[in-house]
Amino acid sequence: MEPAFHRGDLLFLTNRIEDPIRVGEIVVFRIEGREIPIVHRVLKIHEKQSGDIKFLTKGDNNAVDDRGLYKQGQHWLEKKDVVGRARGFVPYIGIVTILMNDYPKFKYAVLFLLGLFVLVHRE
Amino acid sequence: MKGAWPHVCYSRTRKNVEDFTGPRERSDLGFITFDITADLQTIFDWNVKQLFLYLSAEYSTKNNALNQVVLWDKIILRGDNPKLLLKDMKSKYYFFDDGNGLKGNRNVTLTLSWNVVPNAGILPLVTGSGHVSVPFPDAYETTKSY
Questions:
Q1: Do the Cβ atoms of B121 and A4 come within 8 Å?
Q2: Contact predicate B28/B104, CB 8 Å
Q3: Is the pTM of this model over 0.90?
Q4: How far apart are CA B125 and CA A25, in angstroms?
Q5: In chain B, which residues have pLDDT < 50?
Q6: Which of A28, A62, B55, B61 has the most crowded CB, counting CB atoms within 10 A?
């Protein structure tokens, strides 16, 4: 979802079932059978009188919509696929965790320094 | 909330084709050409990083009580020219209906909205005041005109 969000930003989500899904909203959804949730924007909705809704998403920076990401034969997302709605965010917060995951040496350095800190402060 | 007083004009036609973007049923495909005039300067305060601006069509059909389709969008970064003067724009995304609900539909409403992306904080979705109604014709266009 660049340029709005980048890897390491912290997103605040709500997941009230009563909140209607409308175009322009940023939703976090999971595709059946996949573990990693996706944060994209709602591009199209078709909602029945009953409240049943089917909708299409697209990442802001992508040229095409998410149909290529959905399950084989799946053309739409439904309410049950939604994990949350993005309401706010704070940038950069997650960077330290990501660096520790991507660079184990950095993680050991952090742990080492923390250990040192604990030892030095033991009065 | 501050307004942007956008101004949208349009012209439109309609065809009935297989929805090649996904579901392969014959559905109405709308073509809209539009102009947008807007000054977004007042929306950019100290905490605004960018705006995600989008033009959407909203309408009701026999199949679906509510349909919303984003026709066009644009990311406006802090520092970009906030004054938009767009003429004869074609929609960025195919305006397929879920069925044949555009035929003779007199109540398709175009609205300009924007998602404010702050440097940090809440992500509000704002709809511009003023919207345009686009009545679709009863007949299908048979010649290629887009």
A1: no
A2: no
A3: no
A4: 7
A5: 1-5, 146
A6: B55
Dump pLDDT digits (tens) for A82-91: 999 999 999 9
Of B103, B53, B108, B66, nearest in space to A45 by CA = B66
Taking an 8 Å cut-off on Cβ atoms, the answer to whether B67 and A45 are in contact is yes
**Would you kindly state where each structural domain of chain B is located, as residue ranges?**
9-134
Alpha-carbon torsion B124, B130, B133, B134, what sign? negative
Contact A89 B121 (CB under 8 A): yes
**Which candidate in B100, B117, B122, B126 is best for mutational testing of the A interface (most A CBs within 10 A)?**
B117
The residue ranges of every structural domain in chain A are 1-91, 94-122
Paired tokens of B76: 């406006």
CATH number, domain A1-91:
2.30.30
Chain B 21-60, residues with CB within 8 Å of chain A CB atoms: 21-23, 49-50, 52, 54, 56
B23–A88 C-beta distance less than 8 A: no
Before B135, cis peptide (omega within 30)? no
Site of tokens 């939604």: A82
Cβ–Cβ contact B119 with A under 8 A: yes
Please state the ipTM of this predicted complex: 0.85
Amino acid sitting at position B66: L
Q: Do B68 and A75 touch (CB under 8 A)?
A: no
Residue B143: CB partners within 8 Å, gap ≥ 6? none
CA distance A2 to B28: 32
